[in-house]
């Protein structure tokens, strides 16, 4: 009868096999074969408790049968009794030392117990007995991959595929190992082979999409995640990674929806809560982001990334002491978190605790010596403190800090940083960063020309008319136009380093730019007869600037605190909606908008002002370069170029600096400035310009 039961089992007619076994046991309660086969069927049909009971009886009947012990070990494994399963597998091996499957199954139990190195030994013993054991090769590869030994893992997967060429799990794991080795094309081929073998393999779709993300092929990755979710709608990891991809595409609202879907599937998905907070942060919804981080931390109180991102949100909410506390919690969980050390430094810098900030940057760079953001931030802090020698040298790290948006020019000609003689050579000096930066540092052009060089100056289109007569320029080129031949090059903001500038050697002529007299006459006529003191205003810069929320002022707030007896003239070209409404209600203030076609027009208009009042933007640099009286409004922690606690600027002799005394408080600053306007100009008759 038991032969019939075994045949039924082989053809997967388990109901018939079980009927025969139970019939046998009704007359032979200690029949080993019946007990063993019934136990195996119970394992297959997930009746785990029953399987353990039946296989325990089988082992009691035939204590010398290694296979029965191994089957009992499998049932105990399924029941989660891992240590007991290991004990039973070891008994099987004591009975039959060449039993490869017992080694393999023991390895599975050891893996579940997170004892990877011992599991690896088990699989290697199995392979010594059965070199064609594809599953053992697979598990060896997975252990080695988890240990970061990707090349060794890859070798194991190749061996597994020799015996099972279409094994989808092995092909998937092989693809992941190749991805870690940055062999992306081969990885994609491996995922494709897995999907050819098993088209409804959701994990392969998702992991293939992960590889596409690393290649920056985000739209293709989205299609991959969508395919995975069509196969398995409740696949939380695919929803999560889809959200990450949408975030990279800056489709933040869609990313939020994807994270929410992941969390609907798995409410305790800590990384999804955290990255949901990051997407909210990117949308400027900092308070909501904080709530997401707090939910992540309620689930996992030691999750460093949630504390870190929470610190970023608190910093952007100007809750700096709380941000510091969150970074401290990050570092308590992950002491080697270089980003947390760096951002703790930034927060300390905002609190004007500069030497503590430097200590944070030092710690970050000890952990990651090539950490571009850490070098960049340390350079700004050193420059703020007037340490030009070290600050300017480290400022060159800006090219490696991708978030700044700077792109290092890939010229075959060498970079010049002051060491090689320039006599009879042609050098290209090229603008970078913002328009104000180009205006500030084009002062060095005359110094370069004085070294005997022929200077080609490349600048952004709005600056071309303004700089056409800049002293020392042999040829002016608009950015994007074809460049003439040159021998070497230097970015404008590297010139202070090339000239070893320090606080005492800043080239600070009273003026180094001049408005075109024809443009000045045009704007004089446009303004009409002068009857009052004229004050030019620039109250906001680019809304895209990372520090715009701190440096820009609403026009309504500015006008509400300025004396009314003067004529105010807008030097802004672009307006924000709220400022446009303010202008509409102040008919006496002049605004020319699109009539200011470039900086030559703005320069001519500045020349007709008695004083220019500007926040830290390009207009402030323009007025200073023209030598016009310019009053610059600075936030509590300003840009490095304005240094610390001084009312004058070594860059611009005509500048007066007004600094916030408390973070975010413009009202007191504008009040002081209004009083100074009244002291300087009173109700005096206007001067002739």
Characterise this structure.
The chain is α/β, with parallel strands linked by helices and about 700 residues long. Among the domains are: about 425-500; about 515-680, Glycogen Phosphorylase B (Rossmann fold), CATH 3.40.50. It contains 35 helices and nine strands. The strands form two sheets. It has a five-stranded parallel β-sheet, sandwiched between helices. The chain has a four-stranded parallel β-sheet with strand order 3-2-1-4. Strand 2 (about 455-460), helix 27 (about 465) and strand 3 (about 475-480) form a beta-alpha-beta unit. Helix 11 (about 170-180) packs antiparallel against helix 12. The radius of gyration is 36 Å and the shape is elongated. The termini are far apart. Mean pLDDT is about 90; it is low at about 685-689.
Any idea of the CATH class of the domain at 517-681?
Alpha Beta
Instruction: Assign the structural class, choosing from mainly alpha, mainly beta, alpha/beta, alpha+beta, or little secondary structure.
Output: alpha/beta
Strand residue content: 5-15%
Report the C-alpha radius of gyration, rounded: 36 Å
Q: Describe the global form.
A: elongated
Determine the CATH topology of the domain at 517-681: Rossmann fold
The CATH homologous superfamily of the domain at 517-681 is named Glycogen Phosphorylase B
Uncertain segments are 685-689
Number of helices: 35
Helical percent range? 55-70%
Whole-Å distance between the termini? 118 Å
Strand segment tally: 9
Rounded average pLDDT: 92
CATH architecture of the domain at 517-681: 3-Layer(aba) Sandwich
Strand order within the widest beta sheet: 6-5-7-8-9
| Largest sheet, strands/sense/barrel | 5 strands, parallel
């Amino acid at each position: 009868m038991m032969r019939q039961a075994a045949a039924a089992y082989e053809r997967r007619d388990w109901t018939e096999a079980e009927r025969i076994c139970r019939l046998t046991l009704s007359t032979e309660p200690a029949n080993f074969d019946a007990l063993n086969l019934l136990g195996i069927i119970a394992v297959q049909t997930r009746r785990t408790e029953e399987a353990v009971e039946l296989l325990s009886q089988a082992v009691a009947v035939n204590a010398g049968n290694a296979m029965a012990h191994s089957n009992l070990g499998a049932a105990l494994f399924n029941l989660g009794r891992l240590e007991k399963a290991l004990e039973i597998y070891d008994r099987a091996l004591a009975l039959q030392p060449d039993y490869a499957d017992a080694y393999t199954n023991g390895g599975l139990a050891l893996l579940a117990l997170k004892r990877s190195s011992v599991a690896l030994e088990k699989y290697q013993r199995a392979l010594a007995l059965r070199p064609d054991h594809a599953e053992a090769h697979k598990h060896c590869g997975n252990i080695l991959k988890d240990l970061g030994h990707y090349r060794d893992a890859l070798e194991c997967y190749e061996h597994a595929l020799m015996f099972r060429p279409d094994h989808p799990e092995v092909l998937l794991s092989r693809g992941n190992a190749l991805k870690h080795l940055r062999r992306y094309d081969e990885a994609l081929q491996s995922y494709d082979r897995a999907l050819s073998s098993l088209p409804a393999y959701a994990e392969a779709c998702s992991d293939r999409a992960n590889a596409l993300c690393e290649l920056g092929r985000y739209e293709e990755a989205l299609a991959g995640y969508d395919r995975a979710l069509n196969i398995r709608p409740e696949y939380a990891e695919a929803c999560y990674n889809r959200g990450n991809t949408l975030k990279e595409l800056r489709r933040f609202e869609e990313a939020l929806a994807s994270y929410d879907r992941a969390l609907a599937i798995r409410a305790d998905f800590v990384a999804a809560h955290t990255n949901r907070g990051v997407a909210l942060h990117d949308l400027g919804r900092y308070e909501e982001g904080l709530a997401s981080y707090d939910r992540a931390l309620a689930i996992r109180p030691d999750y460093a990334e949630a504390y870190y991102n929470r610190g970023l949100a608190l910093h952007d909410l100007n809750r700096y002491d709380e941000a510091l506390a969150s970074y401290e919690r990050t570092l308590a969980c992950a002491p080697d978190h270089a980003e947390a050390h760096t951002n703790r430094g930034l927060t300390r810098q905002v609190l004007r605790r500069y030497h503590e900030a430097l200590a944070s940057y030092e710690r970050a760079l000890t952990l990651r010596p090539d950490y571009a953001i850490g070098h960049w931030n340390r350079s700004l802090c050193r420059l703020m403190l007037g340490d030009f020698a070290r600050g300017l040298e480290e400022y060159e790290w800006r090219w490696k800090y991708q978030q700044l948006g700077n792109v290092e020019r890939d010229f075959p000609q060498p970079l010049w940083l002051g060491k090689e003689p320039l006599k009879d050579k042609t050098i290209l000096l090229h603008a970078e960063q913002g328009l104000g930066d180009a205006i500030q540092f084009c002062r060095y052009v005359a110094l370069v020309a004085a070294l005997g060089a022929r200077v080609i100056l490349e600048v952004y289109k709005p600056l071309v008319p303004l700089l056409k007569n800049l002293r020392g320029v042999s040829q002016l080129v608009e950015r994007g136009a074809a460049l003439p031949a040159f021998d070497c090059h230097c970015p404008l903001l590297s010139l202070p380093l090339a000239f070893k500038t320090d606080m005492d050697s800043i080239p600070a002529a009273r003026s180094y730019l001049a408005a075109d007299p024809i443009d000045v006459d045009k704007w004089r006529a446009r303004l009409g007869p002068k009857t009052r003191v004229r004050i030019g205003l620039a109250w906001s810069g680019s809304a895209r600037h990372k520090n715009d929320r701190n440096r820009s002022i609403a026009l309504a707030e500015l006008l509400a605190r300025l004396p009314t007896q003067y004529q105010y003239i807008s030097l802004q070209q672009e307006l924000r909606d709220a400022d446009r409404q303010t202008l509409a209600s102040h008919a006496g203030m002049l605004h020319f908008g699109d009539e200011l076609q470039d900086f030559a027009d703005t320069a001519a208009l500045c020349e007709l002002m008695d004083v220019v009042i500007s926040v830290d933007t390009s207009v402030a640099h323009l007025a200073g370069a023209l030598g016009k009286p310019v009053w610059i409004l600075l936030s509590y922690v300003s840009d490095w170029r304005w240094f610390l606690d001084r009312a004058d600027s070594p860059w611009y002799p005509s500048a007066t600096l007004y600094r916030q005394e408390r973070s975010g408080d413009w009202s007191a600053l504008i009040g002081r400035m209004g009083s100074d306007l009244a002291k300087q100009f009173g109700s005096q008759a206007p001067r002739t310009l």
